[in-house]
Amino acid sequence: MTLRALLSQKRQSLVADARVTFIHSAKARGLPRPGERRPLPGSVTRVLDRSPISKPWLVTRGGQGDYVFVPDIPDVDWTIAVGNGAGLDVDLPIGSVDDVGGGFEILRRHGWLTEAGRFAIHQLGLSWHGAGAAAFVQALSQQAERNLAEPDLRPHGEEHAVYFDEYRPRVGSVGGPYSLVLRVLVGSTPRVLGAQLSMQLDGIPVDSSALRTTMDAFSVGDRAAFRSLASKKEVMAFQEGAIPLRVRQEIASEVDAEDPDTWISGVVADNPFRTEALQSRLHADVRSVLQGVDTVVCSSSAR
Predict the structure, then answer these.
(1) Residue ranges of the domains in the chain?
(2) What is the 3-state secondary structure (H, E, C) of 66-81?
(3) What sign for the dihedral angle of Cα 162, 166, 170, 174?
(4) What are the tens digits of pLDDT across the range 180-224?
(5) Cross-strand partners of 247
(6) pLDDT tens string 115-162
């Protein structure tokens, strides 16, 4: 363990636990065990269905990859000039579903989890979409149950899971959107082959101690480094009425809702991007994702 990691651990022990950690006894903490964890944030959104049975996630056909539907994509200041935005990519030491729970406890403690988190789990020809960190961990732990609930599914040996949220640090620090992508083996005891955390900032923070503290809690502080973003911001815009939507379900949100049962923040619809005319107007990476997807989840906003 490096001197930086030792000092960060001593500071975290003082701030979070009111304990003094001596250098000679300092060891890598590892991920929090089940008894050391608190409940993860739930979700403020839910899918309104005519079915009386409430489901924690939405099952769709088609599609494979690392995509996820989100209510809003925070606008990082993309620019041609190098040095404005910054990214942070790091592989996390997660090897099991229980490790995912421990990793999310670290994220919870450091302000990385909100009630607006969204997730997707992709199998060959089938995807599960949901909201909230708690439901994400539940879905991963219930892999066998999810697969058995779909009689037509012939599970591939690996599934890809994506969690999207926004890091909101203390006042004065720089935050931003991030994703956690997991490769999970299918089996009686699912194993995680890889876990990559990627986030985007609107600049390199002058005070990066909050980020460093999180990375040190994962024992990856020495491997976490900022990189400059030099991509152009790309927006796909369509005229009103140009995209026909066949709505299947509605999404209700409790955020700023006068009536949570009727406050609609989005819809679940048949994928409209199946015609060649509309596909040709999509960026290549988006087109490749949506070609095999039968359902899209869209956010709505009042004018």
Answers:
(1) 1-30, 33-45+53-229
(2) CCCCCCCCCCCCCCCC
(3) positive
(4) 999 999 988 899 999 999 988 877 677 778 888 899 899 888 778
(5) 269
(6) 889 999 999 889 999 999 999 999 999 999 999 999 888 888 899 999
Per-residue model confidence as pLDDT tens digits over 276-288: 888 888 888 788 8
Euclidean distance between CA atoms 52 and 54, whole angstroms: 6
Distance CA 291, CA 303 (A): 30
CA distance 148 to 57: 15
56/129 Cα distance (integer angstroms): 9
Q: Which two tokens stand for residue 79?
A: 């620019």
Partners of 167 in the beta sheet?
A: 176
Burial class of 22 by CB neighbour count within 10 A (0 to 12, 13 to 18, 19+): exposed
114 burial (CB, 10 Å; 0-12 / 13-18 / 19+) is: middle
Euclidean distance between the first and the last CA atom of the chain, given in angstroms as a whole number = 54
Burial class (CB in 10 A: 0-12, 13-18, 19+), 147: middle
**Length of the chain measured in residues:** 303
* Dihedral (CA of 254, 257, 259, 265) sign: negative
Which pTM was predicted? 0.79
The count of other CB atoms within 10 Å of the CB of residue 191 is: 14
